[in-house]
Give the backbone structure.
Amino acid sequence: MSFYTPTLRLRRFTQVTPALLREMGVRGIITDLDDTLAPRNVFLPDEEVTAWVKGLTDAGIPICIVSNNHKKRTEDFATPLTLPCFYEALKPSRKAIFKALDTLQIPADEVALLGDQLFTDMTAAKRCKMKSILVDPVGSYGGWFVHFKRKLEIPLRKKIKYDKE
């Protein structure tokens, strides 16, 4: 279980604030896209995502998107936010995470990976020796493979308490 256990568990990405990150010793964020910031069928960032990104970047906290989704989907979402992004990451593979860390120019132990999945996002963070923030998925749960993984995650998620209720 400990390999999948996040540093912090929250309900939504909007609970990740500059004050919370400072408290965690985090200076940068690598975030998943699908079902973390927006449902898979939402192709552009909404006002809530835009305001969240602006709040963090205005506070000097850089953000990079790392998604397992394809190039067009990832870039179409990241471009209006002017965020660097990496696509087809194959998380929990570390390759794209290391590229994002290079882009942020912040040591891994001062960056948190924000995501909605234990087997991809939280595992990738642990493999890269980063802090991790697990949020509940937004929107539908995507295709059959994501649905399958979500079912496997249920017993593990039940054991992880929410922080900052």
